[in-house]
Amino acid sequence: MTDDLEIMIRELHDRQCIRDKLVAYCRAVDRMDRDLLLTVYHPDAIDDHGLFVGGPEEFADWAFGLHQAQQHSHQHVIANHSCELDGDVAHTETYWLFAAMNRYPEALTIGGGRYIDRFEKRNGEWRIAARKCVPEWGGEPGPSWLAPEAAAALASSGTVSRDRSDSSYERPLAIAAERVGYRFAF
Length: 186
Known about the structure:
By secondary structure, this protein is an alpha+beta fold. The protein folds into 2 domains: 3-139, Nuclear Transport Factor 2, Chain: A; 148-179, no CATH class. Helices cover 31% and strands 38% of the residues. It contains 4 helices and 6 strands. The chain has helices spanning 3-31, 34-38, 56-70, 148-155, and strands at 41-48, 53-54, 71-86, 89-102, 108-122, 125-139. A 6-stranded mixed β-sheet has the order 2-1-6-5-4-3. The longest helix has 29 residues, at 3-31. The protein is flat, with a radius of gyration of 21 Å.
């Protein structure tokens, strides 16, 4: 194996380990799994969630208490993720979405933002050393801003189905020539 290939494989492995920790964080908070949550952070980490700033154990108590008191259920979902590796340190930005079925007053609220993290690899394991949770928007769902005709046009790009007729199974993926150049007039 060449040195370049070995470096690429190591970087891919590091990136995947970091991503796995981010997914574990979401699962731990949503399942209120303290043991799993503590595997995501180094013991001396600091999490700044705006309403809470402190270490992992105190964060677990605070987050689980908050979610237990305020919601019947909730989900943390991560999306776009960038990771800048620098040896045994990684600087990451991960977009998150949050949805909650609340105890009161609004039944369902949603929000989105970013986790800005500094991961450190210690004793061969990547964990969060510092986190800023940066919310960007939130509220309660309302009706779609799209008119029904626009929603239908948006949906015309592919087939949504719970079987192999879904567009995700299309091989090779192709765009019909007659669709090229289409623009919906708002």
